[in-house]
Specification:
By secondary structure, the protein is mostly helical. 57% of the residues lie in helices and 0% in strands. The chain has one domain: Lysozyme, CATH 1.10.530.10. The protein is globular.
Length: 155
């Protein structure tokens, strides 16, 4: 798990090379550890590099960001959604619960839309239905850029 977390840390830092903080490495390591732990906690596992790509697309790794429609945090989770009934808006500003709910949401769409069509379930993560959109394509491209070895044999 440590080597996977190190690889995800490197991916995060490659996405945000201009982080203006002295503790960018520590911040990336913290997020990478949470991403890996939460991604491996579901069965079947969710690829942590997909989660990192989604977080970058949704919030650029800004934990307290709020979306136009009320989405909150790193993975831009809607409060009071199906998976967030027992979690407050304040909880969603914290990295771990936000990523836990986001991974659960992503896992649901992988199962619902078919794990073999990444672009489709990434689109569903964004839109709430198994229908392709530009989001799925953009996140998949980003994933292929940061995934060690690229996207060979990934649909």
């Amino acid at each position: 798990m440590e080597s996977l977390a190190a690889a995800v840390t490197a991916a995060i830092l490659s996405l945000l090379p201009l982080w203006k903080t002295d503790n960018a490495q520590l911040r990336a390591e913290k997020y990478a550890t949470i991403i890996v732990e939460e991604s491996l906690a579901v069965q079947p596992e969710v690829d942590p590099f997909v989660v990192a790509a989604i977080i970058f697309r949704e919030s650029s790794f800004r934990a307290k960001v709020k979306g136009k429609r009320g989405e909150v945090g790193l993975m831009q989770i809607m409060p009071r959604g199906t998976l967030t009934r027992s979690i407050t808006r304040a909880d969603l500003k914290d990295a771990r619960p936000n990523i836990r709910v986001g991974v659960g949401h992503l896992h649901y769409w992988q199962e619902e839309c078919g794990a073999d069509d990444m672009e489709l379930w990434l689109s569903a993560y964004n839109s709430g239905k198994c229908k392709r959109n530009g989001y799925g394509r953009r996140v998949r491209r980003l994933y292929c850029r940061i995934k060690p070895g690229g996207c060979d044999n990934i649909s």
